[in-house]
Amino acid sequence: MRLATLTAKTRTRRGWGTAALLRLASVANPSQSKLLFRIRFWLVLFIAGLVLSGLTAFPLQRELVLLNQLLGVPPIAPSGAEPALHTWLRRVMEAVVDTNLRYPFLAYGTDWLAFGHLVIAMAFLGPLRDPVRNKWIFTFGILACAGVIPLALIAGQVRGIPLYWRLIDMSFGVFGAIPLLLCLGYVRRLERLG
Q: Which pLDDT tens digit goes with each residue over 102-125?
């Protein structure tokens, strides 16, 4: 046990970080390896969500066509009443098609949105490797998730986004914060086991 601790301290000084320490300690302390597994599980899930969100921001028009087909939204409004969601999705589809035909350069903004998601996902590779040393990134992510709520409420209202759609947008902030809060709690437990 003492040899493993000395080896871990030496490797930490050489730049291997907490990850190497936890791998060595996992033999002696299985609770540390379980915590590290849980952190990585939730973090991989969060990163996958960011990557998926980023990649789906590129082909908006194709995705809208598929979504409208899947939900049975007719291309022309029916003469009678229809669900509010159908009206909204048709309006969004018409706007995206018109914008892509007349002003295709505006799609460059959603390309940057996609890129931003991918870059933020890359920032979480640090805690994936060494969650204790990079625990500040969890706090950054939690604050970013919290910021989704006022942005959706304020900017969504200004832009005329229906409330039900803003609630969907806000749910990304709420559900995104859950794995990060879990990870931060696990990191604090790792530090106490330390």
A: 999 999 999 999 999 999 999 999
Chain centroid to CA 103: 29
pTM for this prediction: 0.79
Question: How far is the C-alpha of 39 from the C-alpha of 56, rounded, in Å?
Answer: 26
- CA separation (Å) from 48 to 121, 129, 161? 8, 16, 27
Residue spans of the domains in the chain: they are: 35-193
Mapped to the 3 state alphabet, what secondary structure does 49-97 carry? HHHHHHHCCCCHHHHHHHHHHHCCCCCCCCCCCCCHHHHHHHHHHHHHH
Please give the Cα distance from 58 to 70 (Å, whole number).
19
